């Protein structure tokens, strides 16, 4: 190659170098874009649990500002079965009135079929029930419309709704009653013949978190008039990891009832989603003590 040809190639080489420089930026950006697009990307719509398990234990969720709304169980369509809940039984009357003739007394646990419903002059609802060949009227508040079964222990007996079971603990003075599948018991029942009784609470509660008072009431248990204390208690979210998803939002209501008889002391500690849970009243109404 002569000198003149070499000089002609210099401008062409300069133009080629400039073109390569200008293309390098866009090609590099294109490569980077393709590489990023090829990696899995986090979804903006992915759900993140805002109530993740705490990093230190024990822990509780903030107490809800308002209590959950209590639901009233719906009365089934007639006819439907009923079970006598009251420990003293219920009188079978000739009509829907407490002043009408008593035909019989149905003992606790008796099952009958309600085929009519009527109010009395005071607004109490009565059911006309049939039991074999016998028929008559019973007050609705002495019977339940769900199956019941009995549980008993030292000096006590009661009826439980279907799905609830009693389990004795290593301590013979303590019985725990729970609903199948629930991590928190419905009832911890304690009894003693001594003069003192130390209240035992479920391990799912925070022992260091003081209860928050809700209300007090005077109720009847068996033949005793006693005080009922209702408060909110905190679940330990390290032991009940789904506490935030419960109807009580991690703060169940504790209904505490203490009964002193001539021979025993009883402590009933209920845990429920609302402050006046029907199941708590139902169990209290069924209790017989000795």
What descriptors fit this protein?
single chain; 290 residues; alpha+beta; SH3 type barrels; 2 domains; seven-stranded antiparallel β-sheet; five-stranded antiparallel β-sheet; globular; disordered N terminus
Q: What does this protein look like?
A:
The protein is α+β, with helices and mostly antiparallel strands and 290 residues long. It has two domains: 80-142, SH3 Domains (SH3 type barrels, Roll), CATH 2.30.30; 148-289, 3-Layer(aba) Sandwich (Protein Transport Mog1p, Chain A). Helices cover 15% and strands 36% of the residues. It has two helices and 17 strands. It has helices at 3-37, 278-286, and strands at 80-84, 90-93, 102-106, 111-119, 125-131, 134-139, 143-144, 148-153, 156-161, 164-168, 174-179, 187-192, 212-221, 224-232, 253-260, 265-272, 288-289. Residues 1-7 and 17-50 have low confidence and may be disordered.
């Amino acid at each position: 190659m002569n000198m003149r040809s070499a000089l002609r190639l210099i401008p062409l080489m300069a133009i080629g170098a400039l073109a390569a420089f200008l293309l390098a930026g866009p090609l590099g950006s294109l490569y980077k874009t393709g590489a990023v697009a090829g990696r899995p990307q986090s979804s903006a719509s992915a759900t993140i649990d805002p109530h993740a398990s705490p990093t230190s234990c024990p822990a509780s969720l903030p107490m809800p500002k308002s209590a959950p709304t209590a639901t009233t169980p719906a009365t089934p369509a007639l006819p439907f079965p009923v079970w006598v809940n009251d420990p003293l039984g219920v009188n079978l009357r000739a009509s829907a009135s407490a002043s009408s003739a008593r035909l019989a007394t149905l003992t606790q646990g008796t099952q009958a079929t309600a085929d009519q419903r009527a109010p009395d002059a005071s607004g109490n609802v009565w059911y006309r029930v049939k039991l074999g060949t016998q028929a008559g009227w019973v007050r609705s508040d002495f019977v339940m419309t769900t199956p019941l079964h009995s549980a008993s222990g030292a000096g006590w007996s009661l009826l439980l709704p279907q799905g609830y079971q009693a389990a004795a603990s290593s301590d013979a003075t303590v019985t725990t009653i729970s609903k199948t599948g629930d991590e928190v018991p419905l009832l911890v029942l304690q009894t003693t013949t001594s003069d003192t009784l130390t209240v035992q609470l479920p391990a799912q509660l925070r022992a260091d978190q003081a209860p928050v008072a809700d209300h007090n009431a005077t109720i009847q248990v068996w033949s005793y008039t006693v005080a009922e204390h209702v408060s909110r208690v905190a679940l330990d979210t390290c032991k009940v990891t789904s506490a935030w998803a419960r109807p009580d939002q991690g703060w169940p209501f504790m209904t505490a009832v203490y009964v002193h008889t001539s021979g025993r002391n009883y402590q009933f500690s209920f845990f429920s989603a609302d402050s006046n849970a029907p199941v708590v009243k139902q169990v209290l109404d069924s209790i017989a003590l000795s």
